[in-house]
Structure formats: structure tokens, C-alpha cells
Amino acid sequence: MCFITIIYKFLLVLIFVVDTWPVFQSPMKVTSYFPFSYQWPVVMGQHVVIMTIVCTYQLVPCTKGCSEEIRRGSLERHLTETCPKRIVNCEYCKRKGAHKLIRSKNHLDECPDLPITCGECNQAMPRHLHNETCPKAMISCVGCNIVLKREDLEKHNEESMKEHLDIAMKKIDALQHSHKVFMLPDYTKKKEEGEDWCSPHFYTSPGGYKMLLRVRPNGDGSCKGTHVSCFIYLKAGVYDDRLEWPFQGEVTIELLNQLEDKNHWEDTLLFDESTDVDCKQRDSTDGWGKPNFISLSALEYDATKNFQYLKDDSLYFRVNVKATSIRQSQFKPWLVTSVDI
């Protein structure tokens, strides 16, 4: 009997078994009897059986994507012990991440709990504790931003007390004084059409009063057609309930020289007892200002004094505010939001 005949009879018997035994109604996986690795479909009657043979020596790619190929039987050990992308915890700070990252120089150079020995004071302790206490560490002075050793800070503070106080006073003064610069575009069109221009809203200081500048390019009232008129309006602000009303202070409006930083035109508005009460209240519909702020003829270029307020059909205004009605006891800087910037 030839080999082909034997194979043919074997397949007939196998087809009969598959058609009659329930165990063969689903795919069959064989892993214990063959030392090689293949996968192929075998047609048996009305069924297709996928026979999978697994070899433990077959090279397979790492399932974590480290680009290595490992024998199938060693894959689990690779994933838990040697794969550079396996997840581990830093033994010092307990941060979780890929082994390659956690054991890298970048992480160890920044790990806050890594024990280090200071080259300056020779003390050994976790990095974050040492950075906060090392007497040789270079730090910035809060009062003046000078950089010095921590051990010298106390002496520096004692010797520079007056300087620190002066700097603090200037910062407090800056909170009370605020200046904003605004550009009025298309001056000619607004002047000819009698159109008003309003600046964006601004705050007098962090946590202060909210205002806007209104400009009438062709003048207001009796000054119409001869002057530029400027007015300040108080608007409803975030901190109105904490502020004193009516508003009191000084508002200086400057029309800036566009040729050099001098010869600016300015006028100061006083908000005091003589000011109309309606102009000093929150969200006022009445403005306080100067109808005759500057004559139209003064806007043009003056060669003798080298100033030009109207240039490229635009005017630039700067508004400086000193609010005297804000009580410092009411000012809470930690509650100031970005709307005040």
C-alpha cells in the first residue's frame, strides 16, 4: 500500500470522527504534543478546524513595544524583569513610570527624595529637605531679589532694612497709581461724523475702581467744532461693595506726543467735594471731564517744539489715576482676580 493511500484512508477516518464527535465542533488548540509551531486550516466535512501548535522557542516581539524579540517561553519573565518599558516605582519618591525613565539620570537628578551628600556642608539627606535647609544654598532675597547664601540672609536683612522698606513703599504706591495707554483710531472719520470713542474698561488699581475714558473728537457742548473733549466715567466693578463711595481722587489725562517722550498735553480731573455727586457714584451715566481738553488746531505738527499729537489719523491717550478713597485696610490682594490686570 503506497503512502498516498494511507494518508487518504486516515483523512476519511478523521472526517468521520469530526462529523460525529461534539468535541470537534469548535476550534482545536494543541500545545503539548508537537515541538514545532504552525497554524493551518483543516477542512473536515462541513467544519473548518484551526489547529494551532505553539513553540516555546519561537521568537516573538515584546508586547510592551520595546522593539526586542524574545523566546515565547521567556516573554513573561522579560515583561516583569528586564523590559526597559516595564512599569516600576522609584525606590525613593515612589513615582510610577517606565523602568527606562525612572532609572534615568534625568529623573535621579530631579528626584526630591533621593539621598544626596551636599558638597558644601557635607550633610546627607533627601534632596528636597536639603534644598530647603542648606546654609550654603544660593537663594533670592524677597525684599530686593539679590542672590546670596542662605546663611548670609539674616545679616543682609538687618543691614538692608531701609532699602527693603523703600522698595515695599514703591510697590504699595504702584498699587494706588495706575496708568493705561489707549489708541483712538480713525480720528478724522469720528470727528466728521460726530462719533464718540470709548476706551476699554480699566481698574484704577488691583481691587480698585472700574472706569473708562470717553473722547468726543469734535468737542462737546459749547466746545463743539473747536476742541477735543475728554470725560471719565465710573463703571460697575467687581470690588464696588468693598470700596468707599463716592469716589475721590485724581485722574490725569495725557494726550501723548508721538514724536518723542516729552511735551505731552495733559489735564488733571479732581474728584472731590466740588465734583458733581452723580459723577462719583458707581456705574455713573454722567462723566466728569474737560469739554475744552485741547483745541483742534493744537493737534497738528509743531516743528518749533517737535510735537505731533495727531499722526497716522490716530491719537494716543494715557490715563493716570490716584484714588484717595481706597482704605488700605479694605484692600485684600489675595482676592484680586485677573480681571483687575
Automatic annotation (TrEMBL):
Signal peptide range: none
UniProt keyword Transmembrane, yes or no: yes
TRAF-type domain span: 47-96
Keyword Membrane: yes
Subcellular location: Cytoplasm
MF (Gene Ontology): zinc ion binding
GO CC, alphabetical: cytoplasm
This protein's UniProt keywords: Cytoplasm, Membrane, Metal-binding, Repeat, Transmembrane, Transmembrane helix, Zinc, Zinc-finger
Alphabetized Pfam families for the sequence: MATH_2, zf-TRAF
Principal place of residence: cytoplasm
GO biological process: regulation of canonical NF-kappaB signal transduction
ZnF segments: TRAF-type: 47-96
Domain of life: Eukaryota
Transmembrane portions of the chain: 6-24
Positions of the MATH domain: 177-321
Protein name: TRAF-type domain-containing protein
Lineage of the organism: Eukaryota, Metazoa, Porifera, Demospongiae, Heteroscleromorpha
